[in-house]
Specification:
The protein is mainly alpha-helical and 459 residues long. It has two domains: 12-211, MFS general substrate transporter like domains (Growth Hormone, Chain: A); 229-453, Growth Hormone, Chain: A, CATH 1.20.1250. 81% of the residues lie in helices and 0% in strands. The protein has 18 helices and no strands. Helix 6 (144-175) runs antiparallel to helix 13, helix 11 (240-260) packs antiparallel against helix 17 and helix 12 runs antiparallel to helix 17.
Length: 459
Amino acid sequence: MQEKTYLKWYNKVGYGSGDIAGNVVYAFLSSFVMIYLTNTVGLNPGVVGTLIAASKFFDGVTDIFFGAMIDKTKSRLGKARPWMLYAYVGCAVTLAAIFAIPVDMGTAAQYAWFFIAYTLLNAVFYTANNIAYSALTALVTKNSKERVQMGSCRFVFAFGTSLLIQSITISAVAACGGGAAGWRTVAIIYAVVGLVVNTVSVLSVKELPEEELNDSAEKTQGQEEKYGLLTAAKLLASNRFYLMICGVYILQQVYGAMINMGIYYMIYVLNNENLYGVFSWAVNIPLIVALIFTPTLVSRWKGMYRLNLRGYMLGTLGRALVIVAGYMGSVPLMLFFTGVAALGQGPWQGDMNAVIASCSEYTYLTKQKRVDGTMYSCTSLGVKLGGGLGTAIAGWMLAASGFAQGLAVQPESCINMLYFMYLWLPMLISLAITLVLSRMNVEETNEKLKQQMGAEGAW
């Protein structure tokens, strides 16, 4: 029987455009907050890294809270849309505040200003907005194909926005007068753009009535066993594939933090800050291409395991060749091999949610209990902790290298550290992820478990 359809093409595109708003915040912060704080405000990168790491721990804790609040919400707009709509007002205000730290303020007050604004943005407003945005996938349609299409639209807008932000920000800051005023103006522009697009995204879809959403759930409610968060956490801890995924997520976030340190590499090693935007093209365009072809490749290679493993093997080779090109001083070769690495790493970006679903199935097959929601929530926690750890490590290493704010030419120790952080560490992290993925054949394991249980009919 063909599934009922709920959405028009413009609903899917409108929903997907919400990731423009999300990445106006995420891409802008992850790529430029450290260079702004060190080179414009004059803060110590090690202290900044520590504050970001501390803030991320608060960020992780609030995930479950806002998820529960959204579940309990009843309003004219539905459950998730009010949180998505109103939380972004806070996102816009705090994003502008982070890039509006008074340069003549005392250093301690500047650190406090940043920590408060950054924590409010990430742990409160962005978390509430993003969880609500993600939840809409299940609240506006019950059609599985439409949900996949909504996810694909999200990723295309997400990578496209990241590419644009990373490409134009440095030039936009200069065009707005440079310095603190330039960063503040650009942040306000991005905040307004995000606010407008987020509002359009909210209004482009409509949540289904609760009785329709709960129709199938009511039929099985009596068959489902209820258990608490602690029990669910124990189930996750006993799932080796879940632990692998958490490890990969953390490593990916550290990898991303090192790639974002490329802005320092461009300024102090390649002596051209505008190259950061060029390298962002070399990363994001191959990722988008890989995302488009991932469903076809999964089907051709009969599963995600081979595709992800082979992709990351290619990605690791690409990063190794970036090292060679970097020491040769060849920017064109660095760009080419950066693209090769991103192309190899792309399939995992496209199918990781499906891998998580398979990991949840593994828990059901081995423990006869479902922890689908908790599986995704705790993985989100791992992403945030990994992001905080990666940024903190980047700040600590930069501070330990003898980096000096305001110097056009950094000491040799700092230059050597930038080579290590931007060239060597991404390759080593990619290699570590490849080794983990080589053990993550959850699909084959699930099939064997099903066979042992008696046949597909029993399952």
